[in-house]
Amino acid sequence: MKYLILSIVLINVSVYAQNAQIKEAQSIFEKGNSQAAITILNKTEYMILNAPDEDKSDFYFLKGNVLKDLATKDIDAANNFTLASQAYQDVMLYENESGKYKYSVKAGAALKQMKSNLVNGAMNDFKAGKFKESAEKSFKVYLFDKKDTLNLYNAAAASVNAEDYDSAIKYYEQLKKINFSGKGIVYYATNKKTKEEDTFISPKARQSAIDAGLYEKPRTESVPSKKIEVNKNLAYSYLEKKDFAKAETTYNSILEIDPNCVDAYVNLAYLKLELKKALTEEISALGTSPKEMQQYDKLNAKKDDIARSAIPYLKKALLIEPKNESVAKTLLGVYRSLDMTAEYNSLKAGM
Fold it and tell me: Can you give the pLDDT at residue 120?
């Protein structure tokens, strides 16, 4: 009995301390110091584990609000967005378990608002040239709502611009895995105040904004499939990582979608010529010993075979675009390097 009484006393003390800490965090948060508030909540969180579901709901709703405020102020926005999302989801979880719905509606609304804020933040970062930050925010939004695959696409595009090719490859490969196309319809309207076009998730949402007097000049645009663009950027990222095998596979994937894609043929030729360049450098480093001269002959023959393998791609590109001077010049260079005089003269005469 003595131990039971002691246990009850300890629990009561813990609950009192926890409530006092939450009230302190709430007070500090209301005064505008979210950073200090989250520090208190993080230190107190272990005490909430054995609390009633209703108390947990109070705690996590406050935590979500504090983290949301930090994210809105662009303080470690992507990370705080994720943590706030988890806190709000915990609110709904505990309220479902207790059957007492105090904050669920507000938590759901906060989640939608945060997603919108982070998407806008990612767009603003991209426009400002802060590509790494933009990619991070877009990817966090995607993790929160995987049905909205456009955010994964935006994360991939921003990663390419940031020259973060490892992330770009990861995101583009994921887009291919989920068979992303990006094809659809975008609903625009002009903001009367900013004079800038904004997008809406549906015609109904746009009409509501127009009826409220906030927007005008509605415009609807059909968006074509982005599958070729996804593969082009993925192949480019592989090229930048010197992964020529995967780059070649990806360019061939483009040709399966569009057999007349000139860029794919040109880049396949470029890829072969890059391999030739690497062999040329290896040959230049050889000495004059009998063994090295033997190696020279083998590498030189291999170099010519690689250069020769670029020809069909360049000829196909010229067949599609006969007046493409850049492709013609590249092909002339290959013919010259292989001493293919007849082919060189024939192409030269037709230019």
Answer: 87
The string of pLDDT tens digits covering residues 280-294 is: 777 777 777 777 777
Give the whole-angstrom CA distance, residue 154 versus residue 291. Answer: 53
Residue type, 138: S
As a whole number of angstroms, the distance between CA 348 and CA 332 comes to 7
Q: Is 99:57 a contact under the CB 8 Å cutoff?
A: no
Beta carbons within 8 Å of 228's beta carbon, 6+ residues apart: 254, 257, 258, 261
Residue 237 near residue 230 (C-beta atoms within 8 A): no
Q: 200 pairs with which residues across the strands?
A: 187
- Average pLDDT over the chain, rounded to whole? 86
| Dihedral of the alpha carbons of 309, 311, 317, 321, in degrees to the nearest 10 | 180
Question: For residue 32, how many other CB atoms are within 10 A of its CB?
Answer: 10
Output the six-digit token pair for 126.
Answer: 């991209």
Q: Is the pTM of this model over 0.90?
A: no
304-338 confidence digits (pLDDT tens): 888 999 999 999 999 999 999 999 999 999 999 89
- Which amino acid is it at 290? P
Task: Let me know: does 175 contact 227? Beta carbons within 8 Å.
Answer: no
Closest CA to 252 of 274, 237, 272, 267: 267
User: Cα angle at 172 between 116 and 320, to 5 degrees?
Assistant: 120
With beta carbons less than 8 A apart as the criterion, state whether 187 and 200 touch: yes
Beta-carbon contacts of 181 under 8 Å, excluding residues fewer than 6 positions away, are 225, 226, 227
C-alpha 219, offset from chain centre? 27
